[in-house]
Design a protein that fits this description.
mainly alpha; about 70 residues
């Protein structure tokens, strides 16, 4: 890591403090990864859409309750 002071004349203590902040922020930043985090099962839309709903028709009222 190269750091160049463009303006001003910092003291060694000021420069050390600035570098400590930059290094701490760089260490705390999450590393980019190509894979996404796994989805939680409760938020997966296929959990709800996995079952077929009864088709509407003259006897659809008899099929409105499906035990889980």
């Amino acid at each position: 890591m190269n750091i160049k002071v463009v303006r001003g004349n910092p003291t060694p203590e000021e420069l050390a403090a600035a570098l400590a902040v930059v290094r701490a922020r760089a260490a705390a930043a999450p590393e980019p990864s190509g894979a996404e985090a796994p989805r939680q099962a409760w938020s997966d839309p296929s959990r709800i859409a996995g079952r077929r709903l009864p088709q509407p028709g003259p006897t659809a009222w008899t099929r409105t309750y499906w035990p889980g």
